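PROTEIN DESIGN WORKSHEET
SECTION A - STRUCTURE
LENGTH: 137
TOKENS:
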């Protein structure tokens, strides 16, 4: 097993990793981080809960962000409000030494209707929170 430093992460991220108590990368991190650091590509990583998937995509994304640019450089879509909050909190911890890094979360209703197959009623599905906007600097 390699170390986070051997994966090519910068000093800011390595300091945050040390603060969080991580010692060695998980399997998903060891496989994903070098790919995402060295190539512009999409990645689908399937692993159990608690295996470090957020760090596997979060570390490379944060390292590639140019904090001097005022444009959006990363976007993460999550299916639930809870996962959105979890990812935001983790990214803020990972990037705490990246001076100038901004991490925002946007929560909104994802409301849609579809006809029910059994009657003429409509089904409603909700995801997220009602037009919440939270900004963190």
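SECTION B - SEQUENCE
RESIDUE ASSIGNMENT:
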């Amino acid at each position: 097993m390699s170390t986070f430093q051997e994966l090519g992460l910068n000093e800011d991220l390595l300091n945050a990793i040390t603060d969080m108590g991580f010692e060695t990368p998980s399997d998903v991190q060891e496989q994903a981080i070098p790919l995402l650091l060295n190539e512009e590509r999409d990645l689908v990583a399937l692993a159990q809960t608690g295996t470090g998937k957020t760090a596997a995509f979060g570390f490379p994304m944060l390292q590639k962000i140019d904090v001097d640019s005022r444009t959006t450089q990363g976007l993460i879509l999550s299916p639930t409000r809870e996962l959105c909050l979890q990812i935001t909190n983790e990214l803020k911890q990972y990037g705490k030494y990246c001076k100038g890094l901004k991490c925002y979360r946007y929560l909104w209703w994802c409301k849609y209707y579809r006809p029910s197959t059994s009657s003429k009623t409509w089904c409603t599905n909700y995801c997220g929170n009602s037009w919440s906007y939270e900004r963190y600097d």
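SECTION C - NOTES
The two ends are 36 Å apart (CA to CA).
The chain is about 35% helix and 10% strand.
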